[in-house]
Write a structure and sequence with these properties.
By secondary structure, the protein is α+β, with helices and mostly antiparallel strands. It folds into two domains: 300 residues, Pnp Oxidase, Chain A; 114 residues, UbiD C-terminal domain-like (3-Layer(aba) Sandwich). Strands 5, 7, 8, 10, 11, 14 and 17 form a seven-stranded antiparallel sheet that branches. A five-stranded mixed sheet has the order 19-20-21-23-22. Strands 1-2-3-18 form a four-stranded mixed sheet. A hairpin with a 2-residue loop joins strand 2 and strand 3. Helix 4 runs parallel beside helix 9, helix 5 packs across helix 8 and helix 7 crosses helix 8. Bound molecules: flavin mononucleotide (FMN). Flavin mononucleotide (FMN) binds next to strand 8, helix 6 and helix 9. The site of flavin mononucleotide has 21 residues, from strand 8, helix 6 and helix 9.
Amino acid sequence: MSDLRAAIGKLRKSSQLIEIDEDMSSDLEISYFTNGVQMKGGPALLFKMVDGRPTRLLMNVFGSAERVELLLGRSIGEIAAGMEKLLGVVERRPGLADGLRLFGDMRSMAVNERGGGPVKESYGDITLDDLPILRTWPGDAGKFITMPVVITRDPEDGTYNLGTYRMQVFDRETTAMHWQTQKGGAIHLRKAAKLGRELEVAVVLGAPPAVTFSSISPLPAGMDKLAFAGYVAGKGIDVVNGDTVGLHYPSDAEMVLEGYVDPRETRVEGPFGDHTGYYSEPDLYPVFHIRRLAHRRDYIYQATVVGKLWNEDVHISRAIERIFLPGIRFLIPEVVDVFLPEEGLFNDICFVSIRKLYPGQGRKVGMAILSSGQMMFTKYVVVVDDDIDVRDRKQVLWAVATRTDPYRDVEIIRSSVADSLDHASMNPDVGGKMIIDATVKGKEEGYTRAWPKGIKFELDSLMKERLKKYGY
Ligand SMILES: Cc1cc2nc3c(=O)[nH]c(=O)nc-3n(C[C@H](O)[C@H](O)[C@H](O)COP(=O)(O)O)c2cc1C
């Protein structure tokens, strides 16, 4: 699997990296600079001098659609098509070609245990104080690790989870662990609490890009995200066992913090300038204790600026939306396409088009979307027919304007799951939902008149040529 330093090589080769020797401060200066670059769709950044000390701090790695593909080593279209085929095999009787492809897919999902690896080259010589960890926004409570891969195991069945959760640095041995209440790490901790145990945790910093991508991806609980990272990159991943924790982690990562979280302990975390464009309020979160920090001798520290649009995670989220569409279609077969607008922070607003075959199907799909994986965080779902391109906001708004009666076609669900970051919801983690059924209605759905005929020219063959002649 391609590691972070191989990624730097690729970025250099394709002129998508600026290397900065000028000394900048980890306190706000670097985040200001990076934000300025990422808002304009600029390149990845490698800071080599931070707070007067030589270091290597890598930022804005996934800051464009092109770079996401470059770093994963495959096009998003190709990965999504592979997912479609993989799920398609389950739907129909597989043939020999399917079998051969499945064999290739399975090989790429291998997680290979190795006796050692570069991530364990050094230990004992540095602490968190030596890393260029950033304070991003003026009102932030302190320094935050923003691009970690947090690895835990389910205390009941031993399955692994990876998640990217920010970590506020309290001191050189302890940090906060901001896993939100519905996320994998938080669920593992609740299970550990029930068993009266601490939860062992490995935090990988500077993971291979496919592992970071997989960690952020909304996989169903219990599915191995290391295997998914291999699938995405088309090559199995090498792991090494922890020394002080019963967990394995990528052997070619830049750094790992082995440690634990005690379910009985919490501490105030935040405020933190979040991707909502607001500070998330201080709240109680679990505390991560570091037992051992291992790293490559010449380690690279990776971070991101979480903030208002257009930040790095916009490009990661768009790729995730494309790759997971086949999974949504598998669960809700009438779905044609799904679009999560950036302005809705990918979490809050969902446009979905369907092939409608029976009355009530628009609402049914709306409810199914609100019940599918991390789509449970969606606040507004707009369901349209398949003649509408959900990627075109104008078409979606036209469908809302011409195919809905608010009284008949809007369903409000009073209370369901809300994203912990949603400060506007009625209560923390609990809030309302709205489904707008903007599909064409029939009489069973309360529309008793005849639906009008849509306007359309029928002179295509003659007039298209004429238009072309005049340059249109
Ligand atoms: C830069 C970045 C920071 C994130 N920070 C958090 C966080 O602090 N807490 C959280 O619960 N999710 C955070 N997420 C989202 C999770 O990584 C994402 O929901 C992931 O799918 C969680 O995986 P899980 O459901 O397996 O736990 C962040 C995502 C990105 C891209």
